Amino acid sequence: MRLQNTLLGTAGLAAFLLLGEAVPRLGVVKEEYFPPTSRIARALADELSDGAFWTALGDTLTGWALGLAVATCAGIVTGVLLSVVPYLREATASTIEFLRPIPSVALIPLAVLLYGSELRSVLILVVYAGFWQVLVQTLYGVQDVDPVADETARSYGLGTWARIRHVLWPSALPYVFTGVRLAATVALILAITGELVIGAPGLGARIGVAQNSQAVPEMYALIVVTGLLGLLVNVGARTVERRALAWHQSVRGEVAV
Amino acid sequence: MQELLGVSGLNKVYAGSGRRVEAVRDLTFTVEAGELVCLVGPSGCGKTTLLKCMGGLLTPTAGEVRLAGRKVTGPPPGMAFVFQEYGRSLFPWMRVADNVELPLKHKDLTRARRRELVADALESVGLPDAAGAYPWQLSGGMQQRVAIARALAYEPEVLLMDEPFAAVDAQTRADLEDLVRRLWRERGITILFVTHDIDEAVYLGERVIVLSASPTVVREQLKVDLPEERDQVHTRVAPRFAELRTHVYEQIQAAKRGAGQDAVVTESSTPPLH
């Protein structure tokens, strides 16, 4: 069954690549704007042998990772604090609902005003976008603490800190992971958008340069790289999640007793 | 024998969203050191509310709970709780041994002593090999054994058990009842066991407290004069067992009908032989 699925998946991908090769060659679309797969592949190989490409990739990943780390820490700490301190959640709920839907890209002018085309501008966008994902999931997660588990902890005289550490945190963890996974994807989108629009160094800026210099196959090659990055981020996040939540029902499945 | 646990004039009213529910009206009873007392009452009579007030998890509206002469205002250190919902009361992210050890961590014990208590408690409930397993890898009955082990390792003066066997199958239930009897006799802890099962109350208890329907008062206190050595096969067919269970059954039925609310017998000792 699994082998069959893998085979089907590979066949589908191969068909897609073949289509990408055939359609421009048959003249259905202009080769100028839509180069065939083989040309994109060659451009990609050229990119991979270029030192500047690797620098750009490093810049993008730095912005992404730093931003995600800040957003995750801030989101978790704020989420736990808002839930643990009485009245704080009610007091902040409407403000959060107002700030959360603001698209991060709307902050681009502000970021440029503050920091110009530096890494810090990208970080603002990435952190803003990722923060809400983590915060909201943490808030949900903390709410999902089983009352029986909490009463058990209280009946055994566990203090506030011990209850946060041993009950609240593990209960909220599955939600936090979902938040981080979502934030990781959004952070990548924002990092590349920021570079593309602001011109901060990174893959986004390189895509912009390729476009401006009519290097169409190179542009596609870079787009493919961003797609692969997104894929890796998702697979990586899921792997970490599976390991950390081996005890959770969603991961362990039904255990035969 | 002296009073270890005392409840006097306990009243609990849940007020909220325009509704006012008096779950417990006026409860007064005591449990002596080393006793095994069963609380039984019609379903929905506020047993869980009472137990949570006793465990310091809920604040009573009026009246007080005393443990060893001291008023209970929060979860007291000398008390351990076993919940009905074992699956939710054990932490799935911790192995069995860690679950049992967690409450000990804020007690002033050395690591070696904690280990010893955990091993001893697991041995006592018949699960010496389960230490490394996760709770969800065990059957329901085994999980409740782990919860009992956690309570034992805590070395409480009083063990409060809130319908602990209501969710396990009948055969497992019989084993667990015998386990509670054995632990009580071996360790000399005081146990207050809440149940809605009349047979279970009579089989387990040295004394049975029958509660009225909500709003709850004590309807009757009954001494169980069965021999200390009890077993599932013989005790349950003993004529005295049948008499006692019939008596309690009638009391509960009367409580359900709400009869005798104002003529509640609170201190009858043992019902006459039929």
What order do the helices and strands come in, and which of them pair?
The complex is a heterodimer of chains A (257) and B (274).
Chain A: H1 2-25, H2 37-48, H3 51-84, H4 88-99, H5 108-115, H6 119-143, H7 147-155, H8 160-198, H9 203-212, H10 216-244, H11 249-252
Chain B: E1 3-16, E2 19-32, E3 36-40, H1 47-54, E4 62-67, E5 70-71, E6 79-82, H2 86-89, H3 96-101, H4 111-124, H5 140-153, E7 158-162, H6 170-187, E8 190-195, H7 198-204, E9 207-211, E10 216-223, H8 232-235, H9 239-257
Parallel strand pairs in B: 2-10, 3-8, 3-9, 6-7, 7-8
Antiparallel strand pairs in B: 1-2, 1-4, 4-5, 9-10
GO cellular component, one term (chain A): plasma membrane
Family (chain A): Belongs to the binding-protein-dependent transport system permease family.
Pfam family, one (chain A): BPD_transp_1
Describe this protein with a few key phrases.
heterodimer; A: 257 residues; 11 helices; globular; B: 274 residues; alpha/beta; Rossmann fold; 9 helices; 10 strands; transport (chain A); transmembrane helix (chain A)
TL;DR of this structure?
Chain A is mostly helical and 257 residues long.
Description:
The complex is a heterodimer of chains A (257) and B (274). Helices cover 80% and strands 0% of the residues of chain A. Chain A has helices spanning 2-25, 37-48, 51-84, 88-99, 108-115, 119-143, 147-155, 160-198, 203-212, 216-244, 249-252. In chain A, α8 (160-198) packs parallel to α9 (203-212). Chain A is globular. The mean pLDDT of chain A is 92. With 274 residues, chain B is α/β, with parallel strands linked by helices. Chain B has a domain at 3-78 and 156-257: P-loop containing nucleotide triphosphate hydrolases (Rossmann fold). Helix content of chain B is 34%, strand content 25%. Chain B has a 10-stranded mixed sheet with strand order 5-4-1-2-10-9-3-8-7-6, sandwiched between helices. In chain B, β7, α6 and β8 (190-195) form a beta-alpha-beta unit. The longest helix of chain B is centred in the C-terminal third of the chain and has 19 residues, at 239-257. Chain B is globular, with a radius of gyration of 19 Å. The two termini of chain B are 30 Å apart. The chains are: A mainly alpha (257), B alpha/beta (274). The A-B interface holds A 146, 148-149, 151-152, 154-159, 162, 166-167, 170, 173, 247-249, 252, 255, 257 and B 52, 55-57, 75, 77, 79-81, 83, 85, 88-89, 91-94, 102-103, 105-106, 134, 136-139, 154.
